[in-house]
Every structure is written in structure tokens, then in C-alpha cells.
Amino acid sequence: MILRTIVSLGWSPILITALAVAGYIYEWPIEILAPILVIILIIGLVMAATGAKEKDLERLSQKLRQLAGYFNRRFMGNSSLSIFALIEGLFNIDNPKLRDWVRACGMSQRVFNTWSSSFVNRAESDTRTRSFHIHLRTYLNELWLISSHYHEFVEQFYEVAENIELPQETIDQYNRFVVEYNAFVQNFQDLISELKKFARTEIEPPSIKLARELSVMKPLQTAREGEEKPSQPTQHKGYIL
């Protein structure tokens, strides 16, 4: 095993040394020996660089698999941190249009759960057959698509939450989701930035967007247009002006 490692990683220096020693002993012409040694050195350097690149791609492939598995566990299925779980919690609000939207999101959730689970299963299968890194670019694009479409529902929930009054418990649960989801986004952005050094991809890190956090305290409602504000002396109401 040790000999195999030395040969696979350091065959070039070993061969150069052996030829140099043999050339010195047998007095081979330097004008013939030198080009041969240079060629062997160049080949060795190219193979070493290629091997290092393959190791980096294997490491990044592993990070991508881990990110995909984390996303599937924390933000899909029956996880309490899923955006769909938060959306489902809005069904009890007495608003027919809102309930229709929640029902539509429920159908989308089933599609997303199937898609995400299939993605993870295929990644695990290709990992066992040692072919995941071959399809690295395909898996990267697919995870980007999943997270991009998922973020659309995050934005929709945020817009709804900005226009209706939500229980404080729901706001807190959403903000906990934002903290963990944005950590995933940051890790995904870092992975893409690192991957672009070794492989070609059209995906840019900023295209993976962060979720916006809800304010704990809603802003004061401004007076309606055309409605006169009552003239009152400034006084403290228990909130920060």
C-alpha cells in the first residue's frame, strides 16, 4: 500500500533520480539525458495538478451532497422549519383568498417533497457508484433550481405577513426559519464561489437569495389619504417613535 502511494504520487521524482544516477554511472550524453528528464518532470507536474483538481472536485462534491441532504431534512417534508409548514399555519385566518393560496401551496409542497427526495436519493446512488462528481454540474444546477423556486414561496409568505397581522408565535417561528435558511444560503454561495475556481458554471453566488426577516413590531399605520389627523400633543404610547 505504501509503495503504491509512492509510485502513484511520486513516480516522477523517483524516475528522474533513477535516470540521473544511471546516466552518471554509465556516462550517458547530457544532451540526450537532459531533455528526457525535463519531459518526465513536465508530465509529472501536469499529472500532479490534475490529481489535485480531482481531489478538490471530490471534496466540493461531498459538500454539495451534504448541503442537499441538509436542505431536504430541515426545510422539506414534515419539518417544522419548512416554509410550507408556516404557510399551512395561515389557514386558520378568516380570509377566503388567503385560504385558497394556502391550499395551492399545499399542492406545491407535495411536488417539492417528491422532487427534493428524488434529488437526494439519486445523489446517494451516484455516490455509491462513484459517479457523483461526473454529474457535479448537473446536480449543482438542480439544487440551484430547487432553492430558487423554494425562495419564491419564502418571498410570498413575507409579503403576506407584511400585510396581515400574524400571531407573535408565527413571526418568531418564521424568523427562526430565516436564521437557519440564510445559513444554508451562505454555505451554498460559498460552495459556488469555490467551485468556480475548478469547474465552469453559469451560476453566480448572488443568484441564491437570502430570506428577509420580519419585524417583531409592525410599523404604525399612516393616516388614510384625505383623512385629517387629530391634533394631539406628543406623548409616549409605549412604543419607540
Outline the fold blueprint:
Blueprint: H1 2-26, H2 30-75, H3 83-88, H4 96-128, H5 136-163, H6 168-195
Hey, roughly how much beta strand do the residues contain?
under 5%
What's the end-to-end separation, in Å? Answer: 72 Å
Low-confidence stretches: 1-7, 218-241
Number of helices, where a helix is a run of at least 4 consecutive DSSP H or I residues: 6
* Number of strand segments: 0
State the order of secondary-structure elements, H for helix, E for strand.
Answer: HHHHHH
Radius of gyration based on Cα positions: 29 Å
Q: Report the average pLDDT across residues.
A: 80
Largest sheet: none
Describe the global form: rod-shaped
How would you classify the helix and strand content by structural class? Answer: mainly alpha
Percent helix, as a range, is 55-70%
Structure keywords:
disordered N terminus, 6 helices, 0% strand, disordered C terminus, mainly alpha, 241 residues
Walk me through what this model shows.
- This protein is mostly helical and 241 residues long.
- The protein has a domain at 56-207.
- The chain is built from six helices and no strands.
- The protein has helices at 2-26, 30-75, 83-88, 96-128, 136-163, 168-195.
- Helix 2 (30-75) runs parallel beside helix 5.
- It is rod-shaped and about 95 Å long.
- Residues 1-7 and 218-241 have low confidence and may be disordered.
